[in-house]
Amino acid sequence: MKMAEISLTTGMRANLFQLQQTTKGMETAQSRLSTGLRVQSALDDPVAFFKAAEHTQRAGDLAGRKDEMTEAVGTVNAANNGIEAITNLIEAAKSLAQSAQSESNTTDRATLQTQFNSMLTQINNLANDSTYKGVNLLNGTGDTLVVTFDADGTNKLTLTGFDAEVGTGGLSITSAENWSDNTVGNVSTVISNLDTAKNTLRTESQKLSNNMSIITARQDFTDKMINTLEDGAGALTNADMNEEGANMLMLQTRQSLGTTSLSLASQAAQSVLRLF
């Protein structure tokens, strides 16, 4: 014998449907409250999802550029520190040469010559030690520093190094010779070369400072752009937590009312059974 199918009344079906809809709404609200996101996939809102993904991707690319700029600042700082230190040594070397110029004792002049040449060696050491991340802008090896600013790599700044070593290819400072012979003319030439070298270093330092200003300005701009893009992506996908919280309370109330309504509809059906 075939068992008769149990059918629901129209009221019970309507209440059940509303309860199912309320449950779905609560699941959505719970997901938004737990993740903080209104749009979690392309299914939620394709336009907002892909626009937000584009903003996020560009922000990520710019963050990479910002790291490169930070490293570039380190390279420029290393070169500038080297220039400052070399300038100090040139001042000290000039002081030795001036002492030799005014010294009449040949032995003392020979000692000053030795100290002067030792100072030149230290200048070369400083130029070679001013390396940061494999780039040296002072040792005359032709190193360049390319700093990329934008995400697609079209906006760049190229810094070219120079030779801050002594010698004809660099600062044109030559080793001291025959100072013990009291050859004042030779010492005067050395002092003149030191002054020229100091001016060259001052000019190169100014170039580095100008380039540093450009890099740090682009660094700040990039930082603000990253924040703007992330804010834009958030505005497209983030959930309003206050709204979602209020929505959850409303859905809980609706669920309670729906359950009560379904219970009342069920009681109406049961009252029919009491007739038998």
Structure overview:
There is one protein chain. By secondary structure, this protein is mainly alpha-helical. The protein has 5 helices and 4 strands. A two-stranded antiparallel sheet has the order 1-2. A two-stranded antiparallel ribbon has the order 3-4. Helix 1 packs antiparallel against helix 5, helix 2 runs antiparallel to helix 3 and helix 2 packs antiparallel against helix 4. The mean pLDDT is 90.
Structural class: mainly alpha
Indicate the mean pLDDT. 90
CA distance, first residue to last residue: 23 Å
Discrete helix count: 5
**What is the number of strand segments?**
4
List the helices and strands and how they pair.
Layout: H1 10-35, H2 46-102, H3 106-129, E1 131-132, E2 135-136, E3 144-148, E4 156-160, H4 184-237, H5 241-273
Antiparallel strand pairs: 1-2, 3-4
Short précis:
α1 (10-35) runs antiparallel to α5 (241-273), α2 packs antiparallel against α3 and α2 (46-102) packs antiparallel against α4. The two termini are 23 Å apart. The protein has helices at residues 10-35, 46-102, 106-129, 184-237, 241-273, and strands at residues 131-132, 135-136, 144-148, 156-160.
